[in-house]
Amino acid sequence: MTARNMKQQTFFGPFAAVMLALAAPGWAREPLGSVADLAKLERQVSDVAAKVMPSTVALVADQVGASGSGVVVSEDGLILTAAHVVQGVEELQVVFPDGKEATGKVLGANFSKDIAMVKIMGGGKWPAVARGESKPLQAGDWVFALGHSAGFDPARTPPVRFGRVVSKGPGNFLTTDCTLIGGDSGGPLFDLSGKIVGINSSIGMSRMNNNHAGVDGFRDDWARLMAGEQWGKLSMNPFANPEKPVLGVGMGQDGRGGGVSVASVTPRSPAAVAGVKPGDIVVAFEGERLKDGRELLIQLAKRQPGDRIKLGLQRDGETREVSVTLARYDELYANGARGMNFDLPELDSGLGDIPLLRPEERRETERQAQELYDATRPLVRAASDSTVWVWTGRREPVALGVVVGDGRQVLTKWSEVVRGRGTAQVVDATGATRSAKITGVYEDEDLALLSFEGEPLKPVQWSADASPGIGRFLVAASPDGKPAGFGVVSVNERNLRESDQAFLGIAAQPVSKGTGARVEQVEPSSGAAAAGLKAGDVILKIDDRPLSGLRELRSALTGKVPGNEVALRIARNGREETLRVKLANRPELPQFTNPRLRQMEQMGGAISRVRGAFPSAIQTDMQVEPEQCGAPVVDLDGKVIGLLAARADRTRSFIIPAADIVAMLKRPAGDPLVAKVRTPKEMEPMPQAMAGGEGEPPAFAPRGHALPMDGEGADRLRRHFHDMQRLMERMREEMDALEQR
Questions:
Q1: Smaller CB count within 10 Å for the chain: N or C?
Q2: What is the tens place of the pLDDT at every residue in 300-333?
Q3: Together in a domain, 36 and 125
């Protein structure tokens, strides 16, 4: 799935999948019976993530304004990615996590498997990782995903998403609970030895439904991909895939006692060769009894062409077993004949939101979830004593809160509490209820300070340690002593406020044309203008760092703060010189909202009303609900390392670090009577009726404006908002090019 362009596909029936543009399973089978087991697993994840991070690249097609991800698998620059990332593109910019750019040539692609290759052009020794195997993976195997979520961002590394295999998906696909979103497409799925086992492909509505193309698909098609061949059909429907495995039979009615009857057998098909005949009843698949055609379909979809399987048949009252070698649909029916195969137009909701989830897979993932829950529960015991539910007159809590100060103050989520009606109340684990009032607000952190009278509660003990690094495990506490969420540190602590980022004051060409970044425009009132930088100059270095292009310039500015001075080595009219530029604060612009990315952000559950622009935040993949924000978060030592501040989207939650909370509480809180809820400055999508036809860019409308929907007036308004959309896109592109994050 690309960051801007998303394709929506269907597995079948109600299951929707959106294209996202281990070493041995023994790693995963180790039990999680104790905190020590968790600590061992944590070390594996954090160590391996650090090693493979440099090889996870963004793939940017500037000419079409889209981006995905990929992973480098050879030192000479061979990249594995998803086929839908390279569709319709011959060259792309390859951007490494540090911003270094190179040009990549698209090689081959198998759209049926959603796999493709890209080769970095020119010389160079690039950071590379090894390929593992995907076929041996089973439900419960630990894995983690990387990718440039929502596109390349110089202010952060590719976020880590940790989880396990949930299901062996259809054909070559795997399903995990490593949450993905637009921009992750083509990124790698790793086992705990650091080998690639899959490529990010698509998502479903559930956070548990994240699909990856198995890496073994590359091994089977390697020669064709390297030769630049492109073939297949992009579809996440396993029953429309031309490379699907088939028996070569048409199915009749389900049997009353189980199984399904064979209505016809295709001549020279695997079933015909094995001796299957019309009238037979298929009652078992690989020794497992079949209730109906649905179960047979699920079993078949999880196999590969060439697999040899055993079918149990009933014929004339006798049971027999036959061996069948599955064929590829497009090879068996190459002459245009249509195989009847198994028809399953819709599955009921009994399988949940994960396609082709088998009962044994469900049992394993549920057992493993319980094991993880039991192992983490002791970690939150102390923090839970300092955690409360916050009510505001509704039938259920609006947030969690953490006890601070002398035990009569509670810190909680401001934007959720202020929406409630009635008197605020805090409820502890015993059910004791205390009326409270809002006595202060910290707007930047979106936190409110509640005060109550009476018996104090136990104040939380904040950790004095530095914020945990990438790959560290985190657990959120709830008042009842149960874990409210589990996740890893996806991105190190960083400032999320654009206005705090350093601003150079130039727009540069988005596509690298060689060494450096060519200046297209200079903001008149900026530090760049004051230093004498001009349009047409090429920035070769920032301080002592050579630049490969625009994105590396942006990366080089990350970590700088307004007021810093940088040295720019530039080329002008064939001569080089050095300019010193004082950086300013980045100006804020309204956020242009990509409606497709927004849709993906909310797939899998509700998100917080205020979910970003915090002065300091740790990003985690923790799966929580908005009403759980305000909870304390602990590490594997049980230390409270921060406060859960927001559920941002299906892949991200934000935690305000403990040190920042302690510093914040030393500041005077704002007056709740004048405090405002800080909402994102973004343009919202217009109603669908105004969005135009298929393929037309959606129009946008500002909040609170009525839209005339009749005749010429609607057409004029549609054109007006289309122009506004393009203007906002251009403004955002220019600001992003003003390389300053």
A1: C
A2: 877 888 889 999 998 988 899 999 999 887 777 7
A3: yes
